[in-house]
Write a structure and sequence with these properties.
3-stranded parallel beta sheet; 5 helices
Amino acid sequence: MHIRVTLCWPHLNEVGADVLFFDADMGHDDQFPWPRGYAPMPMIALIGSEAPGRIEWALDQGSNAHLLKPIGSTGAYSALLIAADAYAKVQAQADDIRALEDRLRQRPIVVRAILHLLQNEGGGEAAAWKRLRSVSMDWGMTIEDAAEAICRNDKHTRKGP
């Protein structure tokens, strides 16, 4: 393993790092070029003062692990592993949240597709849901994407106003 260290103080000017160590005692709100808590890499806070405000600031920045100052010959490796694991979990959760938010935004389309199926195929609500699930599986897409396709096809097949 090779490690290349770049000092970027007081302002971070190199974002291509694999991990970022930052001094929580000397940090300031505009230090990072990304929104608070949205770092593009794992972050490890170097903490000398255990003042609650400094620790809270480090956590708000998105710190995934920490090392106590002064830095000695131990702890860095475990901090790297912990930070990488915590960062991966945070990213996975953020991806899951985005996917769920996208699905939630598509719910009105699902409702329109169910109404379309009710009007054109009959059989009641349960039958419309079953048909939508069947179309989704047959076409190899999510229910939301299948609903969008059904609504899009409905617009193309409807007669003018």
